[in-house]
């Protein structure tokens, strides 16, 4: 079942709000994972660069030093990609928060009014304004 199908099945405001809270939590959890992995990639890239420079200083043969330098360049590229991915994950988190807030701000008052009303809700046509 897709997210859209499950949201369509959530015909009540309360169910929609619960689903949005769960989805927002999942997006934030994924963003935290991405941020952690990006930090690890960054650290590894720096360690590879340090290893390459250390070997050069110790006059290790050029072929071995070049391998570490190549690995370092690859890791630096991965670090750049991880930074872009982190920014996208942070953007997704902000968008999820905005969707949740908009739903609560636009519909929360209506749900509260229905929940606290001393009478049952009428058919939808009763509330139509002309």
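Sequence proposed for the structure above (130 residues):
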């Amino acid at each position: 079942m897709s997210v859209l199908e499950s949201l369509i099945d959530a015909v009540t405001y309360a169910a929609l709000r619960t689903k949005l809270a769960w989805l927002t939590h999942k997006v934030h959890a994924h963003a935290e994972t991405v941020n952690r992995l990006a930090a690890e990639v960054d650290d590894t890239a720096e360690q590879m660069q340090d290893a390459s420079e250390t070997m050069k200083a110790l006059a290790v043969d050029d072929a071995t030093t070049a391998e570490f330098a190549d690995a370092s360049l690859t890791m630096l590229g991965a670090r750049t990609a991880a930074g872009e991915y982190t920014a996208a994950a942070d953007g997704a988190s902000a968008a999820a928060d905005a969707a949740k807030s908009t739903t609560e701000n636009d519909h929360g008052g209506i749900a509260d009014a229905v929940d606290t009303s001393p009478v049952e809700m009428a058919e939808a046509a009763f509330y139509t304004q002309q």
